[in-house]
Amino acid sequence: MRSSPDNRVHVALYAAIPSHLERHTATAGYSWKARAVQMADVAHAFVSKRPRFHFHSWNVDQSNKGDILIREAVKQQIAQAFSPREVVFDEIGWGELDAQRVERINRDSDLFVIAGSGYLFPNDGKLPRRLFGDSELFPLIRCPKAAVGIGYNALADQERPLTGESSAALKALLGALDRISVRDRRTVELVRAHCDVTPALTGDPVLFYEDPAPPEAAPPASPRLRLGVNIAMHGPVSAKRVEAEIDKLADLLKRISSSHPVELHYVAHAPSERLVFWLLRARGIALQWHDPLPTALPAFYKSMDVHLCQMMHSAIVALSVNLPVTAFAYDMKTAGLFDLLGLSPYCVPIQGWQATSVQAVVARMIEERVAIRETIAQARAPLASLTKTFVSEVAGLVPAQGSAQ
Question: Where do the domains of the chain lie, and which CATH numbers do they carry?
Answer without folding.
Answer: 9-20+63-211+383-395 (3.40.50), 214-380 (3.40.50.2000)
